[in-house]
């Protein structure tokens, strides 16, 4: 699965896994929450990376799948008593249905490149406006999941403390990495890579481009919706302005872009850089007494520009070459 890693790379991966497993016993709750956010970012980034990195389809509306999954599972739990382990299948089905609508329009009319990206933005905005004005899910006032001491340890209802959600996020990130690696090594994975490089050439070689793109879109949407279920039960509140905003889609794509689009470890490296960096900027500016609106975004943006300018192909390819972590390019 990770045959491209050198012995040094395999050891580094094993050490990272061991450190993440032991983290709850080694760090305080604040640091643990930052690692949890990084794991969630790595998971969502991996889901987006399957579509853009493997297939070459740029989506700027992945927050729609996240929000649909979150709201579907939360409503089923609160209004109908259906737990998240069953509700996740409904969330996946809803996200795939949305992806099917986007794909049908995009692929039927050969909408590609930036125009496909605009299509995903349009659908994401339609979903956000719809939830923002839908009284059944609370509209702009938000939708809230009940929290009580009697249910706080019901793992079967995805109820638990910070450590519980940490391990769930770790399992999700590991599963997404394994799934992406398996997909890359599969027949579909090779077809997607061929489509990414040259759709016309892939079609000439007998690849069913439309079907392969649909599969990539469905896989990406389904994985993202599972992240939405996790988000709903972790935060216990949902607001369209939080889970469905364009900024949420940008947050999802930043990690794989900075870490390396199309690579397996890029989303992980990018997320584990950006999440702590964002927290450090917040704490640092607060300590300096800087309260100017947009100061954090400005500094954050400048740092991202420097990182991308210094490593155009992403941090993971650069790190793997410098440290000898892989024998060949992914």
Shape: globular
Could you estimate the helical fraction of the residues in percent?
over 70%
Q: What separation lies between the terminal Cα atoms?
A: 11 Å
Mean pLDDT: 93
Query: Mind telling me the C-alpha Rg?
Result: 20 Å
Biggest sheet architecture: 2 strands, antiparallel
Please give the structural blueprint:
Layout: H1 7-26, H2 29-55, H3 63-80, H4 84-108, H5 114-132, E1 143-144, H6 162-184, H7 187-197, H8 199-204, H9 209-235, E2 237-238, H10 240-243, H11 246-259, H12 266-287, H13 295-310, H14 315-323
Antiparallel strand pairs: 1-2
Helix pairs in contact: 2-6, 2-7, 2-9, 2-11, 2-12, 3-4, 3-5, 3-9, 4-9, 6-9, 7-9, 11-12, 12-13
Explain this structure to me?
The chain has 330 residues and is mainly alpha-helical. It has one domain (7-323). It is built from 14 helices and two strands. The protein has helices at 7-26, 29-55, 63-80, 84-108, 114-132, 162-184, 187-197, 199-204, 209-235, 240-243, 246-259, 266-287, 295-310, 315-323; strands at 143-144, 237-238. It has a two-stranded antiparallel ribbon. α2 (29-55) crosses α11. The protein is globular.
């Amino acid at each position: 699965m990770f045959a491209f890693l050198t012995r040094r790379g395999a050891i580094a991966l094993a050490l990272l896994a061991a450190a993440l497993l032991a983290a709850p016993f080694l760090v305080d709750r604040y640091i643990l929450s930052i690692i949890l956010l990084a794991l969630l970012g790595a998971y969502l980034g991996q889901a987006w990376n399957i579509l853009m990195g493997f297939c070459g389809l740029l989506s700027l509306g992945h927050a729609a799948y996240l929000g649909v999954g979150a709201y579907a599972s939360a409503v089923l739990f609160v209004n109908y008593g259906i737990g998240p382990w069953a509700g996740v299948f409904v969330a996946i089905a809803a996200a795939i249905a949305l992806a099917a609508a986007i794909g049908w329009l995009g692929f039927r009319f050969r909408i590609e490149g930036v125009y496909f990206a605009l299509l995903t933005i349009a659908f994401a905005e339609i979903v956000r406006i719809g939830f923002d004005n839908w009284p059944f899910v609370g509209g702009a006032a938000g939708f809230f999941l009940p929290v009580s001491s009697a249910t706080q340890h019901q793992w079967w209802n995805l109820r638990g403390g910070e450590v519980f959600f940490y391990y769930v996020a770790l399992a999700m990130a590991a599963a997404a990495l394994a799934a992406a690696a398996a997909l890359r090594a599969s027949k579909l994975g090779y077809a997607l890579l061929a489509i990414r490089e040259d759709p016309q050439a892939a079609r000439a070689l007998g690849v069913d481009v439309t079907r392969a793109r649909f599969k990539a879109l469905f896989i990406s949407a389904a994985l993202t919706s599972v992240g939405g279920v996790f988000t709903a039960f972790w935060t216990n509140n949902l607001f369209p302005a939080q889970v469905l905003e364009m900024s949420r889609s940008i947050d999802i794509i930043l990690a794989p872009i900075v870490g390396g689009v199309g690579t397996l470890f890029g989303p992980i490296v990018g997320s584990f850089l950006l999440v702590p960096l964002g927290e450090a900027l917040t704490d640092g500016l607060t300590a300096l007494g800087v309260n100017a609106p947009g100061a954090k975004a400005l500094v954050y943006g400048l740092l991202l520009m420097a990182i991308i300018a210094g490593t155009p192909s992403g941090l993971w390819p650069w790190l793997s070459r410098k440290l000898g972590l892989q024998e060949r390019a992914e």
